[in-house]
Design brief:
- The chain is mostly helical.
- It has a single domain, classed as AhpD-like, CATH 1.20.1290.10.
- It is built from 14 helices and no strands.
- Helix 1 runs parallel beside helix 3 and helix 3 runs antiparallel to helix 13.
- The longest helix is centred in the C-terminal third of the chain and has 20 residues.
- It starts with 5 loop residues before the first helix and ends with a helix.
């Protein structure tokens, strides 16, 4: 592969200066289309210039969206975990990001249960409306452990309190530890819900409300959006290495 041109080297140095790191997967993209890479640099650097959120937390947000079950992008997880550690993140903080992000699977229920309830009603099925004493106790425990309640949970609790109890225990673990500030925890939830791989409006709204309650500013929440908006570049960081490999194969075969 040819070496970088002088302009490409200058763009690479700016990326390192403005984004604070370099990864090998950027080299081929820079060689193939420096104009596009430069435009991406300008786009992705905006939240790094503003600084509403500290660099360590920015990198934890990247780790979360890359580790989310809707994405599971291993090169990004590794690159941003390295960056987070360099900015002072502890193993406990990174593990807590994984724990927070791991609850994404519950959206199977928070999306599916309202539809199930509507269809049961359409079929004339009578559903219980009042929480039992046990269910009310679980609701109180959820509010204490997680710091909020949403109407989304009521139907879930009424339909299967045993499964709800298991989810409560699972999702409460990172809240009991308290490694990350509650506001930062909510930033992680916002990030994985608003990511283009998920776009879960209900969760985004809930966790924005929670973040504001914990003292988040509009600038911080906008910065979460800006950080997560660059997720689309993984089209290139996955696709470009395949293109480069196929071009090598063509040269060998010809």
């Amino acid at each position: 592969m040819k070496s970088l041109s002088e302009r490409q080297k200058e763009i690479k140095e700016r990326f390192i200066s403005e984004r604070g790191y370099w990864a090998e997967f950027w080299d081929d993209l820079l060689r193939l289309n420096e104009d596009f890479f430069e435009a991406y640099l300008k786009f992705s650097a905006v939240p790094w210039k503003k600084g509403a959120i500290e660099p360590k937390v920015k990198e934890l947000i990247y780790v979360a969206i890359d580790a989310s079950t809707t994405h599971l992008y291993e090169p990004g997880i590794q690159a941003h975990m390295q960056n987070a550690l360099r900015y002072g993140a502890t193993p406990e903080e990174i593990m807590e990001v994984f724990e927070l992000t791991s609850v994404l699977g519950i959206h199977t229920c928070t999306s599916g249960i309202p539809i199930l309830v509507d269809e049961l009603k359409n079929n004339g099925v009578e559903l219980k409306q009042e929480l039992s004493e046990r269910q009310q106790k679980l609701k109180d425990q959820f509010k204490e452990a997680r710091g909020y309640w949403s109407e989304l949970w009521d139907q879930f609790l009424l339909l299967d309190d045993e499964f709800f109890e298991a989810y409560l225990e699972f999702s409460s673990v990172p809240w009991k530890k308290g490694t990350l500030d509650p506001k930062i925890k909510e930033f992680i939830y916002i990030a994985i819900d608003v990511a283009t791989t998920h776009l879960y409006d209900s969760g985004t709204r809930i966790h924005i409300k929670n973040a504001l309650k914990y003292g988040a500013t509009k600038e911080e929440i906008m910065e979460v959006f800006q950080l997560v908006s660059v997720l689309g570049i993984h089209t290139c960081t996955v696709g470009v290495p395949i293109l480069v490999e196929e071009l090598k194969n063509l040269r060998v075969n010809n």
